[in-house]
Amino acid sequence: xxxxxxxxxxxAGKMIKHLLRCRFQxxxxxxxxxxxxxxxxxxxxxxxxxxxxxxxxxxxxxxPDESADFPAEKAALDVLxxxxxxxxxxxxxxxxxxxxxxxxxxxxxxFALGHIVSGGGDNCHAVNRLDRDTSGIVLFAKxxxxxxxxxxxxxxKRYVAGVFSYPQDDEGTVSLPxxxxxxxxxxxxxxxxxSPAITHYRVIERFEGRSLISLRLETGRTHQIRVHMLAIxxxxxxxxxxxxPASRALSEHLGIKAQLLHAEILSLIHPLTGEKLRFEAPPxxxxxxxxxxxxxxxxx
Length: 300
Hints:
Number of domains: 3
Number of strands: 16
Oligomer: single chain
């Protein structure tokens, strides 16, 4: 990736490394890599980042090459948005967001990388992640520079969920700290000694024994929505980790095998251009199960 910048009056007398951190928002780690393997030029001359600049100087920066540590794969992607820095896609349920030690291929990131490579790129980093069975919007950065920019950008995330029963109020806020149940376990619980977690909800539609709700996250704790909904007596339908006997019975009756949770809207301000970006992905047909015929013989 290359930057070309004409030094402004307010930047005169500053060192190049200051401009790279403040003007281009390079992270400390990327600045170190740039010193070692990047190309920094001032008026066409290769220089050290400790060089000072004058008004009207032309500063050029070529970021060091990088490559992904997992393979690129070709597959159909539901692309919502793409520019030179980011790629937003709609993830289907049942797919991992990123490779792990146990699964190195067949993830959304493998397919996103395949798409990026076909366009001349060579890497991708997940800016946000969704659980395997959560569908919806995932944002990928195309290089380390973009990842550092977008991971620190303030985002508004909205979800829709199918839940057992109904929240007490049509609108409300759950503000309960969350921590791991025990060290090394995946499961989370609400607890006074946990990390602050805030979820806002609004009931969209009520059905017999279940409801469709909209959720907005103010914090982004692991499993936050699933833990908070269980805490108020409305566990997600289809959730095999956070459930009650009644919610599991209703899920089985309706044929819901994966948690009904979908990341529908992601909004943020582009950290470089200041443009407001808003990505939308309506929930898929799996949410139609909420409208199935009323259940029989299932307590709630």
